[in-house]
Amino acid sequence: MKIGKVTARYATALFELAREKGALDGVGANVEALPRELANGDLFDARVPHDDKRKRVEALAAKAHPLFANFLRILFAKRRLEVLRDLPDAFRRCALADRGAVEGIVESPRTLGQGELAELAVSVKSVLGKDVVLEQRANPELIAGVRVFVDNRLIDQSALGRLEGLERRLRTARV
User: Fold this and answer.
1) Could you tell me the pLDDT band of residue 102, with boundaries at 50, 70 and 90?
2) In CATH, 5-97 is 1.10.520
3) Which of 64, 95, 141, 171 is the most buried (most CB within 10 A)?
4) Cα Rg of the chain, angstroms
5) Packed helices 66-77 and 50-62: angle between N→C axes, nearest 10 degrees
6) At the topology level of CATH, where does 100-172 sit?
């Protein structure tokens, strides 16, 4: 998922402040609960009056960790509530980066077992030098093998990818 620069900056600032104050667990729990809290989407609707949005933000802040409550109020004051849409993903990336890990996506023709996924994560770690948290997606077009997307890189070990590579080499080979 692509995260905007503004959201990434706000998420980084929130993460670093929470880490500095020793409140990562509390703030992290609030950030994780955010999609459920914002399910009705009225904070992002331009037709909703400003005062109604303020009440909604204050209701969210009342049951949140003090750091996160202040963060919500700042976003409201700066008219940056749209940051809340992608905040959970951006905050999770900050947490992963803090422990030297990255997220990745694995495409395979079938769902992989946990053991296979763990082995794949270890293999990708040896290539990238970072811990990798992998998410699975089934793609029956691959026929066999896997494709891994991590850190804007593609590691293609699928039968389809290998066949396409062979085709490219054959087309460019001198006869």
Assistant:
1) confident
2) yes
3) 64
4) 21
5) 170
6) Glutaredoxin (3.40.30)
